[in-house]
Amino acid sequence: MRVTNVTVRAVNALTARWAGTAESGTVFSAAGVWPLLAFLADGADGAARAELADAVGMPADEAAAAARGLLAGLDAMPGVDSALGLWTKRTLELREEWEAGLPAEAHGVLTGDPAADQEALDAWAAKRTGGLIERMPAKVTDDTELLLANALSLRTRWLRPFRETPWQPEGGPWDGRVLLGLRRQSALLDRIGVADTPDGHVTELKVHGSDGIDVRLLLGEEGMTAGQVLGAGVGLLSDRSAVVPGTRLPYGEVGPGVRVVKERATTPRPPTLEVCTPAYEVRSDHDLRKRHELFGLTTARTRVPGHFPGVSAFPLYVAGARQTALARFGALGFEAAAVTALSLAGTGIPELRWIVTTVEAAFDRPFAFLAVHRPSRLVLAAGWVTDPAPFPEAEW
Protein backbone atom coordinates (compact mmCIF):
# COMPACT_ATOMS: atom_id res chain seq x y z
CA MET A 1 0.00 0.00 0.00
CA ARG A 2 1.33 3.43 -0.98
CA VAL A 3 1.49 6.17 1.65
CA THR A 4 -0.84 8.95 0.49
CA ASN A 5 0.44 12.45 -0.17
CA VAL A 6 -1.95 13.76 2.49
CA THR A 7 -0.35 11.53 5.13
CA VAL A 8 3.18 12.40 3.98
CA ARG A 9 2.40 16.10 4.31
CA ALA A 10 0.87 15.56 7.75
CA VAL A 11 3.86 13.56 9.07
CA ASN A 12 6.39 15.97 7.56
CA ALA A 13 4.48 18.90 9.07
CA LEU A 14 4.78 17.29 12.52
CA THR A 15 8.50 16.77 11.81
CA ALA A 16 8.90 20.48 11.08
CA ARG A 17 6.99 21.54 14.20
CA TRP A 18 8.98 19.14 16.39
CA ALA A 19 12.21 20.42 14.83
CA GLY A 20 11.23 23.91 15.95
CA THR A 21 11.70 22.81 19.58
CA ALA A 22 15.22 21.39 19.06
CA GLU A 23 17.96 23.21 20.96
CA SER A 24 20.78 20.67 21.25
CA GLY A 25 22.04 17.47 19.70
CA THR A 26 19.01 15.28 19.05
CA VAL A 27 17.36 12.67 16.86
CA PHE A 28 13.63 12.01 16.57
CA SER A 29 11.04 10.36 14.36
CA ALA A 30 7.65 11.98 13.80
CA ALA A 31 6.80 8.97 11.63
CA GLY A 32 7.06 6.86 14.79
CA VAL A 33 4.76 9.11 16.84
CA TRP A 34 2.15 10.06 14.24
CA PRO A 35 0.27 6.73 13.90
CA LEU A 36 -0.06 6.42 17.68
CA LEU A 37 -1.56 9.90 17.95
CA ALA A 38 -3.86 9.09 15.03
CA PHE A 39 -5.20 5.93 16.70
CA LEU A 40 -5.75 7.85 19.96
CA ALA A 41 -7.56 10.62 18.08
CA ASP A 42 -9.93 8.03 16.63
CA GLY A 43 -10.87 6.86 20.13
CA ALA A 44 -10.86 10.23 21.89
CA ASP A 45 -13.73 12.58 22.73
CA GLY A 46 -14.22 16.24 23.52
CA ALA A 47 -11.22 18.58 23.76
CA ALA A 48 -8.75 15.69 23.65
CA ARG A 49 -10.15 14.58 20.28
CA ALA A 50 -9.90 18.08 18.82
CA GLU A 51 -6.32 18.58 20.08
CA LEU A 52 -5.13 15.20 18.77
CA ALA A 53 -6.79 15.83 15.39
CA ASP A 54 -4.98 19.16 15.19
CA ALA A 55 -1.66 17.46 16.04
CA VAL A 56 -2.04 14.81 13.30
CA GLY A 57 -3.28 17.37 10.80
CA MET A 58 -6.55 15.72 9.74
CA PRO A 59 -10.07 15.04 11.06
CA ALA A 60 -10.16 12.48 13.85
CA ASP A 61 -12.60 10.24 11.98
CA GLU A 62 -10.06 9.92 9.14
CA ALA A 63 -6.98 9.47 11.33
CA ALA A 64 -7.15 5.72 12.05
CA ALA A 65 -7.48 4.80 8.36
CA ALA A 66 -4.55 7.08 7.54
CA ALA A 67 -2.49 5.48 10.32
CA ARG A 68 -3.21 2.00 8.96
CA GLY A 69 -2.16 3.19 5.51
CA LEU A 70 1.07 4.67 6.87
CA LEU A 71 1.98 1.47 8.75
CA ALA A 72 1.26 -0.64 5.67
CA GLY A 73 3.30 1.74 3.53
CA LEU A 74 6.25 1.59 5.93
CA ASP A 75 6.11 -2.22 5.90
CA ALA A 76 6.36 -2.13 2.11
CA MET A 77 9.41 0.16 2.02
CA PRO A 78 12.69 -1.71 1.41
CA GLY A 79 15.19 -1.07 4.18
CA VAL A 80 12.47 -0.03 6.64
CA ASP A 81 10.99 -2.15 9.44
CA SER A 82 7.91 -1.01 11.35
CA ALA A 83 5.77 -2.68 14.01
CA LEU A 84 2.81 -1.69 16.15
CA GLY A 85 2.23 -3.18 19.60
CA LEU A 86 -0.76 -2.94 21.94
CA TRP A 87 -0.77 -4.37 25.46
CA THR A 88 -3.69 -4.20 27.90
CA LYS A 89 -4.61 -5.55 31.30
CA ARG A 90 -6.83 -8.62 31.15
CA THR A 91 -9.55 -6.68 32.96
CA LEU A 92 -9.66 -3.82 30.42
CA GLU A 93 -12.38 -4.24 27.80
CA LEU A 94 -11.67 -2.47 24.52
CA ARG A 95 -14.28 -1.15 22.09
CA GLU A 96 -14.52 -3.68 19.28
CA GLU A 97 -14.53 -1.01 16.57
CA TRP A 98 -11.33 0.59 17.85
CA GLU A 99 -9.49 -2.70 18.44
CA ALA A 100 -10.49 -3.95 14.98
CA GLY A 101 -8.68 -1.00 13.43
CA LEU A 102 -5.30 -2.18 14.76
CA PRO A 103 -3.31 -5.11 13.35
CA ALA A 104 -4.68 -8.36 14.79
CA GLU A 105 -1.24 -9.64 15.75
CA ALA A 106 -0.42 -6.44 17.65
CA HIS A 107 -2.49 -7.15 20.80
CA GLY A 108 -0.67 -8.53 23.83
CA VAL A 109 -1.51 -8.78 27.53
CA LEU A 110 -0.08 -7.07 30.61
CA THR A 111 0.23 -9.71 33.32
CA GLY A 112 0.02 -7.34 36.27
CA ASP A 113 3.64 -7.97 37.23
CA PRO A 114 5.35 -4.68 36.24
CA ALA A 115 8.88 -6.15 36.28
CA ALA A 116 7.96 -9.12 34.09
CA ASP A 117 5.92 -6.94 31.75
CA GLN A 118 8.78 -4.44 31.43
CA GLU A 119 11.20 -7.22 30.54
CA ALA A 120 8.85 -8.50 27.83
CA LEU A 121 8.33 -4.99 26.42
CA ASP A 122 12.09 -4.33 26.37
CA ALA A 123 12.59 -7.57 24.45
CA TRP A 124 9.92 -6.49 21.94
CA ALA A 125 11.64 -3.13 21.37
CA ALA A 126 15.05 -4.78 20.85
CA LYS A 127 13.68 -7.41 18.48
CA ARG A 128 11.65 -4.97 16.39
CA THR A 129 14.62 -2.60 15.91
CA GLY A 130 17.30 -5.23 15.33
CA GLY A 131 18.93 -4.36 18.66
CA LEU A 132 19.29 -0.63 17.94
CA ILE A 133 16.86 0.30 20.75
CA GLU A 134 17.25 -2.04 23.70
CA ARG A 135 14.44 -0.86 25.97
CA MET A 136 10.85 0.28 25.75
CA PRO A 137 10.86 4.00 26.62
CA ALA A 138 7.64 3.81 28.67
CA LYS A 139 7.71 2.30 32.15
CA VAL A 140 4.98 -0.10 33.21
CA THR A 141 3.41 0.53 36.62
CA ASP A 142 0.57 -1.00 38.59
CA ASP A 143 -1.69 1.73 37.18
CA THR A 144 -0.92 1.03 33.52
CA GLU A 145 -4.10 -0.20 31.81
CA LEU A 146 -2.99 0.07 28.17
CA LEU A 147 0.28 0.61 26.33
CA LEU A 148 0.44 1.45 22.61
CA ALA A 149 3.86 1.40 20.96
CA ASN A 150 5.49 1.77 17.57
CA ALA A 151 8.94 0.54 16.57
CA LEU A 152 10.54 1.98 13.44
CA SER A 153 14.00 1.22 12.09
CA LEU A 154 15.81 1.79 8.81
CA ARG A 155 19.12 0.75 7.37
CA THR A 156 20.69 1.77 4.10
CA ARG A 157 24.10 1.37 2.47
CA TRP A 158 25.56 4.20 0.43
CA LEU A 159 25.55 3.64 -3.30
CA ARG A 160 29.10 5.01 -3.16
CA PRO A 161 30.91 4.67 0.21
CA PHE A 162 32.97 7.38 1.87
CA ARG A 163 36.66 7.12 2.71
CA GLU A 164 37.54 7.38 6.41
CA THR A 165 40.28 9.83 7.35
CA PRO A 166 41.37 11.89 10.37
CA TRP A 167 39.96 15.40 10.05
CA GLN A 168 40.75 18.50 12.13
CA PRO A 169 38.28 21.34 11.49
CA GLU A 170 39.74 24.82 11.70
CA GLY A 171 37.75 27.18 13.90
CA GLY A 172 34.31 26.66 15.31
CA PRO A 173 33.27 24.41 18.21
CA TRP A 174 35.25 21.41 16.91
CA ASP A 175 38.54 23.30 16.52
CA GLY A 176 41.45 21.20 17.83
CA ARG A 177 39.54 17.92 17.81
CA VAL A 178 40.55 15.01 15.59
CA LEU A 179 37.31 13.76 14.10
CA LEU A 180 36.46 10.65 12.10
CA GLY A 181 36.17 12.41 8.76
CA LEU A 182 34.33 10.96 5.78
CA ARG A 183 35.49 12.09 2.33
CA ARG A 184 34.13 11.43 -1.13
CA GLN A 185 34.53 12.77 -4.67
CA SER A 186 31.84 12.76 -7.33
CA ALA A 187 31.15 14.17 -10.77
CA LEU A 188 27.48 14.57 -9.83
CA LEU A 189 27.36 18.23 -8.86
CA ASP A 190 23.60 18.21 -8.40
CA ARG A 191 24.02 16.22 -5.18
CA ILE A 192 24.68 19.56 -3.48
CA GLY A 193 22.74 22.80 -3.57
CA VAL A 194 22.33 26.09 -1.74
CA ALA A 195 18.86 27.31 -0.78
CA ASP A 196 17.73 30.82 0.10
CA THR A 197 15.23 30.31 2.93
CA PRO A 198 13.34 32.89 5.02
CA ASP A 199 15.77 32.38 7.91
CA GLY A 200 18.99 32.33 5.90
CA HIS A 201 20.96 30.29 3.38
CA VAL A 202 21.13 26.52 3.84
CA THR A 203 23.47 24.08 2.12
CA GLU A 204 21.88 20.72 1.33
CA LEU A 205 23.87 17.57 0.50
CA LYS A 206 21.95 14.51 -0.69
CA VAL A 207 23.61 11.18 0.09
CA HIS A 208 21.86 8.40 -1.81
CA GLY A 209 21.45 5.04 -0.12
CA SER A 210 20.13 1.71 -1.28
CA ASP A 211 16.44 0.78 -1.07
CA GLY A 212 15.23 4.26 -2.01
CA ILE A 213 16.45 5.98 1.16
CA ASP A 214 18.41 9.24 1.15
CA VAL A 215 20.07 11.14 3.97
CA ARG A 216 20.19 14.89 3.52
CA LEU A 217 22.80 16.86 5.44
CA LEU A 218 21.88 20.49 6.07
CA LEU A 219 24.26 23.28 7.11
CA GLY A 220 22.81 26.69 7.84
CA GLU A 221 24.31 30.12 8.18
CA GLU A 222 25.95 30.96 11.50
CA GLY A 223 23.27 32.04 13.94
CA MET A 224 20.51 29.87 12.49
CA THR A 225 18.86 27.64 15.06
CA ALA A 226 18.33 23.90 14.88
CA GLY A 227 14.63 24.42 14.24
CA GLN A 228 15.28 26.89 11.44
CA VAL A 229 17.72 24.60 9.62
CA LEU A 230 15.63 21.45 10.05
CA GLY A 231 12.44 23.31 9.17
CA ALA A 232 14.08 24.62 6.01
CA GLY A 233 15.18 21.11 5.09
CA VAL A 234 11.66 19.74 5.45
CA GLY A 235 10.32 22.62 3.36
CA LEU A 236 12.78 21.88 0.57
CA LEU A 237 11.31 18.38 0.18
CA SER A 238 8.18 19.87 -1.36
CA ASP A 239 9.53 23.14 -2.78
CA ARG A 240 12.75 22.92 -4.78
CA SER A 241 12.40 26.37 -6.36
CA ALA A 242 14.65 28.00 -3.74
CA VAL A 243 17.56 25.58 -4.35
CA VAL A 244 20.45 26.46 -6.66
CA PRO A 245 22.06 23.12 -7.62
CA GLY A 246 25.80 22.62 -7.74
CA THR A 247 25.79 22.73 -11.54
CA ARG A 248 24.61 26.37 -11.42
CA LEU A 249 26.62 27.73 -8.51
CA PRO A 250 28.97 30.65 -9.32
CA TYR A 251 32.63 30.79 -8.33
CA GLY A 252 33.61 31.84 -4.82
CA GLU A 253 32.08 31.38 -1.37
CA VAL A 254 28.55 30.46 -2.45
CA GLY A 255 26.90 29.08 0.69
CA PRO A 256 27.48 27.76 4.19
CA GLY A 257 30.51 25.50 3.99
CA VAL A 258 30.60 25.60 0.17
CA ARG A 259 32.92 27.34 -2.24
CA VAL A 260 33.53 26.92 -5.98
CA VAL A 261 37.13 27.35 -7.17
CA LYS A 262 39.16 27.15 -10.35
CA GLU A 263 42.55 25.46 -10.03
CA ARG A 264 45.27 24.09 -12.27
CA ALA A 265 45.62 20.33 -12.76
CA THR A 266 48.05 18.02 -14.57
CA THR A 267 45.27 16.13 -16.37
CA PRO A 268 41.83 17.11 -17.59
CA ARG A 269 38.82 16.02 -15.53
CA PRO A 270 35.16 16.97 -15.38
CA PRO A 271 33.88 19.30 -12.64
CA THR A 272 34.09 17.46 -9.31
CA LEU A 273 32.23 17.61 -6.03
CA GLU A 274 34.47 16.98 -3.00
CA VAL A 275 32.68 16.35 0.27
CA CYS A 276 33.99 16.04 3.82
CA THR A 277 31.67 15.42 6.74
CA PRO A 278 32.17 13.86 10.17
CA ALA A 279 30.77 10.49 11.11
CA TYR A 280 28.28 10.70 13.94
CA GLU A 281 26.05 8.82 16.33
CA VAL A 282 23.15 10.58 18.06
CA ARG A 283 20.91 9.16 20.79
CA SER A 284 17.93 10.89 22.38
CA ASP A 285 15.12 10.28 24.84
CA HIS A 286 12.01 12.44 24.53
CA ASP A 287 9.21 12.99 27.05
CA LEU A 288 6.33 13.89 24.75
CA ARG A 289 4.14 15.03 27.63
CA LYS A 290 6.53 17.93 28.27
CA ARG A 291 5.65 19.15 24.75
CA HIS A 292 1.96 18.35 25.12
CA GLU A 293 0.82 21.24 22.88
CA LEU A 294 2.91 19.88 19.99
CA PHE A 295 1.47 16.36 20.22
CA GLY A 296 -2.13 17.22 21.09
CA LEU A 297 -1.84 15.81 24.62
CA THR A 298 -2.75 18.87 26.67
CA THR A 299 -6.17 17.59 27.69
CA ALA A 300 -5.44 13.88 27.26
CA ARG A 301 -2.72 13.99 29.95
CA THR A 302 -5.08 15.25 32.66
CA ARG A 303 -6.44 12.57 34.99
CA VAL A 304 -10.12 13.46 35.06
CA PRO A 305 -12.39 12.88 33.30
CA GLY A 306 -11.61 9.95 30.97
CA HIS A 307 -10.83 11.08 27.41
CA PHE A 308 -11.03 7.92 25.29
CA PRO A 309 -14.56 6.47 25.31
CA GLY A 310 -13.93 5.17 21.80
CA VAL A 311 -11.09 3.02 23.15
CA SER A 312 -12.77 1.67 26.27
CA ALA A 313 -15.70 2.42 28.57
CA PHE A 314 -13.14 2.47 31.39
CA PRO A 315 -11.99 6.10 31.92
CA LEU A 316 -8.42 6.53 30.65
CA TYR A 317 -5.83 9.28 30.36
CA VAL A 318 -2.30 9.45 28.87
CA ALA A 319 -0.02 8.77 31.82
CA GLY A 320 3.20 8.46 29.81
CA ALA A 321 4.38 9.31 26.30
CA ARG A 322 8.03 8.83 25.38
CA GLN A 323 10.32 8.13 22.42
CA THR A 324 13.85 6.73 22.34
CA ALA A 325 15.73 7.30 19.09
CA LEU A 326 19.15 6.58 17.57
CA ALA A 327 20.93 7.51 14.34
CA ARG A 328 24.37 6.50 13.00
CA PHE A 329 26.08 7.92 9.90
CA GLY A 330 29.25 6.17 8.76
CA ALA A 331 31.47 5.46 5.78
CA LEU A 332 29.33 2.60 4.46
CA GLY A 333 25.81 3.63 5.35
CA PHE A 334 23.21 4.97 7.73
CA GLU A 335 20.93 3.38 10.30
CA ALA A 336 18.30 4.81 12.59
CA ALA A 337 15.59 3.56 14.91
CA ALA A 338 12.90 4.92 17.18
CA VAL A 339 10.56 3.28 19.65
CA THR A 340 7.59 5.38 20.76
CA ALA A 341 5.23 4.35 23.55
CA LEU A 342 2.05 5.86 24.96
CA SER A 343 0.79 4.43 28.24
CA LEU A 344 -2.79 4.98 29.40
CA ALA A 345 -3.88 4.69 33.03
CA GLY A 346 -7.22 4.82 34.75
CA THR A 347 -8.33 8.24 35.97
CA GLY A 348 -8.32 9.02 39.68
CA ILE A 349 -7.43 11.84 42.05
CA PRO A 350 -5.72 14.67 40.12
CA GLU A 351 -1.99 14.96 40.59
CA LEU A 352 -1.18 18.20 42.41
CA ARG A 353 2.63 18.24 42.25
CA TRP A 354 4.58 18.48 38.99
CA ILE A 355 8.35 18.26 38.63
CA VAL A 356 9.57 20.14 35.58
CA THR A 357 13.10 19.67 34.30
CA THR A 358 14.72 22.15 31.92
CA VAL A 359 17.90 21.29 30.07
CA GLU A 360 19.74 24.22 28.46
CA ALA A 361 22.52 23.74 25.94
CA ALA A 362 24.37 26.02 23.49
CA PHE A 363 26.09 24.83 20.33
CA ASP A 364 28.01 26.98 17.86
CA ARG A 365 27.83 25.36 14.40
CA PRO A 366 25.68 22.23 14.36
CA PHE A 367 24.30 20.58 11.24
CA ALA A 368 21.04 18.76 10.69
CA PHE A 369 20.01 15.60 8.91
CA LEU A 370 16.85 14.12 7.45
CA ALA A 371 16.43 10.45 6.52
CA VAL A 372 13.95 10.51 3.65
CA HIS A 373 12.09 7.82 1.72
CA ARG A 374 13.06 8.94 -1.79
CA PRO A 375 9.88 8.05 -3.76
CA SER A 376 7.37 9.54 -1.28
CA ARG A 377 9.62 12.15 0.38
CA LEU A 378 8.39 10.96 3.77
CA VAL A 379 10.79 11.97 6.56
CA LEU A 380 11.56 8.80 8.55
CA ALA A 381 14.03 10.34 11.01
CA ALA A 382 15.52 13.76 11.65
CA GLY A 383 18.23 15.11 13.87
CA TRP A 384 20.77 17.70 14.87
CA VAL A 385 24.47 16.82 15.21
CA THR A 386 26.64 18.59 17.74
CA ASP A 387 29.12 15.94 18.86
CA PRO A 388 30.59 14.07 15.91
CA ALA A 389 32.56 10.86 16.29
CA PRO A 390 36.27 11.22 17.15
CA PHE A 391 38.90 9.50 15.06
CA PRO A 392 40.07 6.34 16.90
CA GLU A 393 43.05 7.32 19.06
CA ALA A 394 44.92 4.09 18.42
CA GLU A 395 44.94 4.73 14.65
CA TRP A 396 45.74 8.42 15.08
Q: What does it look like?
A:
The protein is of the alpha+beta class. It has two domains: 5-155 and 281-346, Antithrombin, subunit I, domain 2 (Antithrombin, Chain I, domain 2, 2-Layer Sandwich), CATH 3.30.497; 157-279 and 362-385, Alpha-1-antitrypsin, domain 1 (Roll). 24% of the residues lie in helices and 34% in strands. The chain has eight helices and 18 strands. Strands 1-18-17-9-8-7-10 form a seven-stranded antiparallel β-sheet. Strands 3-2-4-16-15-14 form a six-stranded mixed β-sheet, with helices on both faces. A hairpin with a 4-residue loop joins strand 17 and strand 18. Helix 1 (5-19) runs antiparallel to helix 7, helix 2 (30-43) packs antiparallel against helix 3 and helix 2 packs antiparallel against helix 4 (60-76). The longest helix has 17 residues, at 60-76. 45% of the residues are buried. Mean pLDDT is 87; it is low at 349-364.
Radius of gyration: 22 Å
Task: Find the structural class using helix and strand composition.
Answer: alpha+beta
> What value does the average pLDDT take?
87
Helix content: 10-25%
Give a quick account of the main beta sheet: strands, pairing sense, barrel closure. Answer: 7 strands, antiparallel
Give the overall form. Answer: elongated
Task: Provide a count of the helices.
Answer: 8
